[in-house]
Amino acid sequence: MAKKIVVASGKGGVGKSSVSAGLSCALQRAGHNVLVIDCDIGLRSLDIMLGASEEMLFNWGDVITGRCSADNALTPTAYGPTLLCAPKEFEHEYTAEAMQKLAAEYEDRFEYMIFDSPAGVGMGFKLSAAAADSAIIVATPDEVCVRNGAIAADNLAALGISQSRLIINRFDVKATVKRRLLNIDDVIDSTHLRLLGIVEQDSAVSFNMSRGKPLPPKSNAAKAFARIAARLDGKRVPLKLD
Ligand SMILES: Nc1ncnc2c1ncn2[C@@H]1O[C@H](COP(=O)(O)OP(=O)(O)O)[C@@H](O)[C@H]1O
Ligand SMILES: [Mg+2]
Q1: Which CATH number fits domain 3-232: 2.30.110.10, 3.40.50.300, 3.90.1150.10, 3.90.1300.10?
Q2: Which ligand is nearest to the CA of 203?
Q3: Does the pLDDT at position 101 exceed 70?
Q4: What is the mean pLDDT of the chain?
């Protein structure tokens, strides 16, 4: 039975999709069978990030509406995790119950299911959380993002997901030292969330992923995702930056 994790933030552009892609690849590399589900209806991005935009034929909306089978919607990616692409537009059949039924189609075949949430706390956010049993909140170390992350976690708790853990993304030691950004303790204090990991500002994320290329294994981001994957697996991995 898969661990079903929604990756959310409230705010857009903080790295939810990058974290979903990077973490899915790291979990797959650690030997797990991973399904990553792009829940950003109309604004999908994981097909590009995972180098699978040519492969995509169907999306999860096609499964819900009966246009294709659960198997046919699975899109293989070059870097290991299997992808379910997001539909191009919203349809009224996309309900929380439909998402739960969709997840049930796959949960025995995968060890992890990662739901990449859209921005906001509206309908798309709720759909992305409908089948999840825990959450990762992604926040960049600035006041607005941190507050939105805390709000997203509160909304998830109201939906019955009480376990939310925090990834601080785009962390930049130099900017923190100059007090332009919040430090790690500030972020944890403001969100009251358990820290799962820190991903540094790393040009490998923006450069490679936007071109559908894998993160170089020695990049700081790839190493951070490997540590986060190990923590999700229950291993004790010290928090450290490269
Ligand atoms: N750790 C990082 N270092 C550098 N750039 C990053 C990092 N995380 C995300 N980005 C960049 O930030 C932008 C938004 O990321 P994305 O994952 O699409 O955010 P979201 O899904 O939250 O909207 C992208 O251009 C991405 O490459
Ligand atoms: Mg996104």
Answers
A1: 3.40.50.300
A2: 1
A3: yes
A4: 91
pLDDT bracket for residue 242 (50, 70, 90)? low
Residue 105: pLDDT band (50, 70, 90) is very high
What separation in Å is there between the alpha carbon of 186 and the centre of ligand 2?
Answer: 25
Query: Can you tell me the mean pLDDT for 33-59?
Result: 91
Beta bridge partner(s), residue 198:
168
CA of 14 to the centre of ligand 2 (A): 8
Tell me, in angstroms, the distance from the centre of ligand 1 to residue 100's CA.
28
Q: Is the CB of 13 inside a 6 Å radius of any atom of ligand 1?
A: yes
Residue 138 in contact with residue 149, Cβ under 8 Å? yes
Closest ligand 1 atom to 116 CA: 21
Q: What is the DSSP string of 114-169?
A: EEEPPSSSSHHHHHHHTT-SEEEEEE-SSHHHHHHHHHHHHHHHHTT---EEEEEE
Please say if the pLDDT value at position 19 is more than 90. Answer: yes
